[in-house]
Amino acid sequence: MWESQIESLNSGCIQKISIFSQTRRVTYSEVIQLWQQAETFRSFFISLLASAPFSAYFWETPPITHSTVNQEFEFVLVDSPQLTKVEPELSSFKEYFESTSEDVITFPNLNQDALLVVPCPIAKSSAYPHLATFVREAPKSQQHALWQTVGSVLEQNLNDRSTWVSTSGLGVYWLHVRLDSYPKYYSFNPYKIAG
Predict the structure, then answer these.
(1) Which of 40, 81, 134, 179 is 20 to 30 A from 145, alpha carbon to alpha carbon?
(2) Taking the complete model, does pTM exceed 0.70, yes or no?
(3) SS3 (DSSP) at 187
(4) Residue 1 — pLDDT band, cuts 50, 70, 90?
(5) Cα–Cα separations (whole angstroms), residue 81 to 96, 106, 124, 135
(6) What is the DSSP letter of 80?
(7) How many domains does the chain have?
């Protein structure tokens, strides 16, 4: 039902990935809906992330607006060996974790220029320092909840200004998907300058 096309860039340090439904590339708009509504798609997407050849990586998408939501969806995984050595920092979001019983939470960053979608600690902490460990070790139900929330929050906050959706992890060692007003932590230059 779903297929991917993977292009290796930068001597194999970056994978650029497109997703197809039959022979047609899916759009960003479709992915936003599929993240929210289609368990089979989320399973496919999660397995795609989990099977990446990197121990740790940054996940980055092109910027999106209301007017570009129907562009073909793609993303990059950028090898990030420096993340393989980090220990999860539970304390970074502790106040948010203590005030909820949810598996995934959303809140603005300190500068109020990004929304963060963050999994709560419901499994061993080694599952949470970055996206690669999360999609390989966290409970499946929480993995699905994360992408459902990303889709929902992105749909609710889509407007005429560019939004960059990504993970980095070099500032705070606890997975957080960023919906950002500028490409603050982007490493893939074509996406960084696209907005």
Answers:
(1) 81
(2) yes
(3) coil
(4) confident
(5) 28, 27, 21, 17
(6) -
(7) 1
